[in-house]
Design brief:
4 helices
Length: 75
């Protein structure tokens, strides 16, 4: 455990209170523009968007993908 967590007493908070604290700290941060993409990231994004535009029927909702992944992990 970091010395900062101990010195502030955060290590003694319940998990629920810690999560609430995380949320409040996150919400207190000033909004920042997203970082610039590298050229490689931009090309990959363009590639994926082109695939999506070429065949929108190939897209699956996240819930479906997640269920398939979790199902494969369970055997």
């Amino acid at each position: 455990m970091s010395s900062l967590l101990a010195s502030l007493g955060i290590d003694r908070l319940s998990p629920a209170v810690r999560l609430r604290l995380i949320s409040e700290i996150w919400d207190s941060l000033p909004e920042q523009p997203p970082p610039d993409l590298t050229d490689e990231q931009a090309r990959e994004l363009d590639r994926r968007l082109a695939l999506m535009d070429a065949d929108p029927t190939a897209l699956r909702p996240w819930a479906e993908v997640e269920a398939r992944i979790l199902g494969s992990l369970r055997g």
